[in-house]
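Re: that chain you flagged

S.,

Sorry for the slow reply, it's been a week of failed gels. I finally had a moment to sit down with the sequence you sent. For the record, here it is as I used it:
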Amino acid sequence: MKSTLWMIGGFCAAAAGFLVFGCRKTPPVELLAHRLQDAWADHHTVAETT
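Prediction finished late last night. Pasting the structure tokens below so you have them in one place:
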């Protein structure tokens, strides 16, 4: 009985960990750096209309 409760508790802890840490996957820093570089280049290469 005691081992069954420990097993159920372990499954619940694993499920909770998966839900908490699986949802917050952050993109790699290199990808963010490339996006920032592209956005910066687009911002500074837009032709002024005034």
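What I noticed first: Residues 2-22 form the longest helix (21 residues).

Talk soon,
D.
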